[in-house]
Specification:
Blueprint: H1 5-12, E1 24-28, H2 54-66, E2 70-75, H3 85-91, E3 96-103, H4 116-122, E4 126-130, H5 136-143, H6 147-160, E5 169-173, H7 184-199, E6 205-208, H8 215-223, H9 227-236, H10 240-243, E7 251-254, E8 260-261, H11 264-269, H12 286-289
Parallel strand pairs: 1-2, 1-7, 2-3, 3-4, 4-5, 5-6
Antiparallel strand pairs: 7-8
Bound molecules: iron/sulfur cluster (SF4) (2 copies).
Length: about 325
Amino acid sequence: MVAAFKERINKIDPDFIRFETLQTLQVNMGNLCNMGCSHCHVGASPDGKKVMERAVVDKLIKIIARKPGLILDLTGGCPEMNPKFRHLVEATADCCKRRIVRSNLTILTEPGFEWLAEFFREQRLVVTASLPCYLEENVDRQRGKGTHATSIEALRRLNRLGYGDEFELNLVFNPGGEVIPGSQQELEMAYKKELDNKYGIRFNNLLTITNAPIGRFREYLESKGMYDRYLNLLATHFNPEAAQSIMCRTLISVDWKGFLYNCDFNQATGVPITGAGGEILKIEDLEMAAVSGKELFLSQYCYCCTAGEGSSCTGALVA
Ligand code: SF4
Ligand code: SF4
């Protein structure tokens, strides 16, 4: 029996189960995607119907303008496929400390999206791109046949535009199955060596992310009878040092309708941030959701954030 995550970190320090201060607003623009990966925790696909509309985008723009200095982190699905992606990016150019687009890379090579790479550079976006392995067979197994070759083509295009040098390009590694990522630093060295030697590709940082046992990945674990074993593995490798840095202490996640969550995983599992009366908070209630000391909505899958070196949208927590 795995101990309750919340109690475990509460025992270390009661502050660890509470919101600290807002640094990052992560915006999930919906579940439309040109791919349909086996590990996708938001169940995205080309048939995704949850698409953030202009009214929500405009509310976001107003709120971001009132809170200068935030990190804006755009995700999905494939955020670039949202018809309002361009509008959101252009309208937030002057008010954020840093703007990140989480790209699956393959979208850069799709017909109709040829403008994207230049647009990223023009807008000085940080590109954080999924490349779950440097080996072709592993990428193709997890993300579909031909994905590795397309991703390499997209990375070359970004390198030609100065990404990996003048502009920040980060790659994301997540394991192909029910294991905890190894050392982020060592893996980064291996990625850099392999990608440079084989393809002449440069990037800045590798971010390791542990698979959360939710969504398609949970279904896979349950179908193999491995869900309990994986949760146990995460709990056994609980790292108290990572507990104080869980990303939900400084991040708020927004869904396609404008509802607020402690993170994208809570969004995927339908655990929103609620107010004192139990009402679900929306983007216009951001001040209320991001108040220092507000209790976080924690679950058992949170163990994925504290296993080994820890895990977050910006990679390992204690690497
Ligand atoms: S590219 Fe990302 S969002 Fe799209 S299906 Fe794969 S994991 Fe999900
Ligand atoms: S899964 Fe989300 S809510 Fe849980 S610890 Fe990680 S970031 Fe926080």
